[in-house]
Amino acid sequence: MAGLAGRLARRWCSGLLRSPLQVPALGLHMGGPAMRTSQKDFNNAVNQVKLLKEDPGNEVKLKLYALYKQATEGPCNVPKPGVLDFINKTKWDAWNALGSLSKEAARQNYVDLVSRLSASSESPSPEAPAADRKQPESDTLVVTSEDGITTIRLNRPTKKNALTNQMYHDIMAALQAASKDESVITVLTGSGDYYCSGNDLTNFASVPPGGLEEMARRGAVLLRDFVNCFIDFPKPLVAVVNGPAVGISVTVLGLFDVVYATDRATFHTPFSHLGQSPEGCSSYTFPKIMGSSKAAEMLIFGKKLTAQEACAQGLVTEVFPDGTFQKEVWARLKAYSKLPPNTMRISKQIIRNRERETLHTVNAEECRVLRERWQSDECMNAIASFLSRKAKL
Ligand SMILES: CCCCC/C=C/CC(=O)SCCNC(=O)CCNC(=O)[C@H](O)C(C)(C)COP(=O)(O)OP(=O)(O)OC[C@H]1O[C@@H](n2cnc3c(N)ncnc32)[C@H](O)[C@@H]1OP(=O)(O)O
Known about the structure:
By secondary structure, the protein is α/β, with parallel strands linked by helices.
């Protein structure tokens, strides 16, 4: 499943390549001073776009759209679409960002861009990174099993391992499989410089036919099922936090048995900034782990903890220098994986079982509250700000 903005953008961008940008036909009035780019060059470039062999990606299509509008209509002169009209707002932002660029310069830029795209689509370099090409969904999670350890690796480093809807499903399936496989320890970790940047905010951009209400209902069901998998996981569960962690990737840590972190990691739950409320049972586990006032500072005010602070508060088991993190942690986990599996499982059960029912109740309540939050103006505005690149943490 693709995210909201991505999907919306893809939908209009694909139309954009089929018909000349879904804007008025090219009966252009391009008089004025001598131009380096003739109307014929420009018309040719518009036609050439439709013949590109490779999809140039959404960013480029957005650039083409904006240049086309500027070249044909001049500076953006239409009212800004509403905050929830994501597609048109993204297009408007791109056009508006060209400011007072002249029609002539926009035409030239458009022709230059198309000519670069045509050249690269004629001679593709296999070594060139396919930045705009979408990875198959299955690549965003990599599951391996070795030395008695099943490792579930978030593998979307270019998006800081933000969790798409598909990834929630894949992680649930991986946990189900790991609970039954031969391994004795299960590890969750990330690829690249981040552990995980939390929920992919574009998940909220795909508003289904039932509207915001239906989107919030589906989100709450998915979140509840996802967190339940952590509550019920029967074997020792270890987080190897290889970098900064945000949102839901932090809150579920309270349901892990052990959390190892690089000293580069940070722990951030910016729910108030996003008009959202705590999940992952953190409204229960965090006060229990670190005391209610420290938990409030994280969950209400969004205080970001360093790895050392998170360790001092009991959320992290141990912090390692980044240079030796992987080596030290995996050596230790390999040694632990030689311990008797049944004994470890039984010990986990006796530690966790007492509060399992409570955790399910907490999870259900947090999802109920979030379902309402996701329909609030505060939340929608925060997400729209992020999607329009105006805000980040
Ligand atoms: C089923 C629903 C369940 C819902 C459960 C609810 C969970 C709540 C949460 O998880 S709340 C937390 C949500 N996360 C965020 O708010 C983080 C948003 N991201 C950022 O603020 C920043 O990206 C950053 C601080 C994580 C990293 O900043 P940096 O400058 O180092 O890197 P970039 O911003 O350039 O990021 C690289 C690209 O990755 C995209 N990206 C990063 N995080 C997310 C995200 N959470 N959602 C969507 N996209 C994300 C970012 O947009 C860049 O993409 P681009 O290269 O295409 O521009």
